[in-house]
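Appendix B. Worked example

We walk through a single record from start to finish. Start with the input: the chain for Cation transporter, Stutzerimonas stutzeri, length 324.
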Amino acid sequence: MAGHNHEHGHSHGNGPGHSHGSGKTLLVALVFTTAFAAVEVFGGLIADSLALLSDAGHMLTDSLSLGVGAFAAWLARKPASRRHSFGLKRAEMLGALFNVLFMFGVIAFITYEAIRRIGDTPAVAGGTVLAIGALGLLVNLVVAWVLMRGEQSVNVRGALLHVMGDLLGSVAALAAGAIIYFGGPPVVDPILSLLVSLLILVSAVRLLREVTHVLMEGVPKGIDAQEVGDTLVRIDGVLAIHDMHIWSLSSNSLALAAHVDVDTMERWASVLPQLQHVLHERFDITHSTLQPEDASIRRACSADPDCGAGDSVWQPDGKKAGAA
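Next comes the structure step. The output line below is what the pipeline stores for this chain.
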């Protein structure tokens, strides 16, 4: 009977040091973002500006994203245990799901308040909104600079996208303050706050799609299963790849499981390192479980219509053979 071989590789970009560097970068950004969100909440209440409050809500969701990222980087350094054989990498996805739900709550609140204020717009202190909006733009530029100089993990790049959204929110608050300060109608404040809430909605929907895709064990973004299968079967000694599954353990840790048909079982010791090298270096798949099988077993199986039904097979001609 064919044996099973489980190999667990570790990418140079996803090790403990990498997670630690990402965590420090995210913590620095978290401090800046959270502190200014508090300033915007205070300024929004004083100036009675929904634009400032909505931008504060946007920055608060980003603070949660940064916090989740930093916490996930810390959890990623925790070793696997008997109870959690993959470690605690999926905590990142659970935190992101909480973050999405929180963002939807912020959107609902801002939208409700904006519609109410469009019909009955209170006086807004344009000068205060203008000053805090300008300060917010500066803070977001500093945070973006910190993130761009740090370790470029998936968490950090995702946080950077949120910060770019914050920049637009600060521009909206700045525009509202300037228009009101120079004599424009106060109704511009709730209107621009609706635009900010739209930015939050776009971020929330995008993040929800990513989280759902990971939790549903979808093929990771940027990975083409067809290309992976075609590449593996080009390795000398490999006759076919089947039962292949690729999924994400977290945003920066990919896994693959597959059955590998080899011409002779004696060659497995030399074929396995080549498979791992290709998965690691070309596709950044750091956790692989590869099961060798004698090609004669596959040929015997193909004679049975119920054997391996629906299983995609990659063969050395570079084309997926389809169901067995």
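Two observations about the output. The radius of gyration is 26 Å. The first strand starts at residue 5 and ends at 7.
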